[in-house]
Design a protein that fits this description.
It is a single chain. This protein has two domains: about 60 residues; about 70 residues, Split barrel-like, CATH 3.20.180.20. The chain has three helices and five strands, in the order E-E-H-H-E-E-E-H. The chain is an alpha+beta fold and about 140 residues long. The mean pLDDT is about 85. The chain is extended. The strands form two sheets. The chain has a three-stranded antiparallel sheet with strand order 3-4-5. A two-stranded antiparallel ribbon has the order 1-2. Helix 1 packs antiparallel against helix 2.
Length: about 140
């Protein structure tokens, strides 16, 4: 089973590639996760428990990566000082832009740097939320 990648056109201009439908992959992932949960509940799982836990972690990671790709409409890239690609912002499907506090290097395995992008998004979101709460309390106390 493979991800389908399709050409993306805006008007008549080719704009790159986008991830195609992942419905079949998500269905297969859900089926396998359900099967693993059934195996985990079995009284005969003892000798295979480590393997089952490893599979569960792997399927969980795959699900998170699919969800991450599905929720991100675009990433904003910029060139670093030495020519490397840096991710500086994330753009949602609704057009909301989240500028990262620190840029993330887009090099090496995609799952590694996409995880770094996810972590930076969480960190930036947490800081924005903290700042918003602080400003709200500050304005309210006046």
């Amino acid at each position: 089973m493979k991800f389908s990648v399709v050409k993306y056109f805006k008007g008549t201009q080719e704009r790159g590639y986008i991830l195609g439908s992942v419905d079949e992959i998500i269905q297969c992932l859900d089926d396998n996760t359900f099967n693993l949960q059934s195996i985990s509940g079995s009284r005969f799982v003892g000798p295979f428990l480590q393997t089952v836990h490893k599979w569960e972690k792997t399927l969980s990671l795959i699900g998170e990566v699919i969800e991450m790709y599905d929720n991100i409409a675009a990433l904003r890239f910029q060139d670093g000082d030495s020519g490397e690609k840096l991710v500086s912002a994330m753009i949602s499907a609704e057009g909301e832009v989240m500028e990262f506090r620190k840029t993330v290097r887009a090099e090496g395995r995609v799952e590694d740097w996409m995880t770094a992008v996810l972590n930076e998004m969480r960190r930036t979101n947490r800081l924005i939320t903290k700042e918003a709460i602080f400003r709200y309390c500050e304005d309210r106390s006046r």
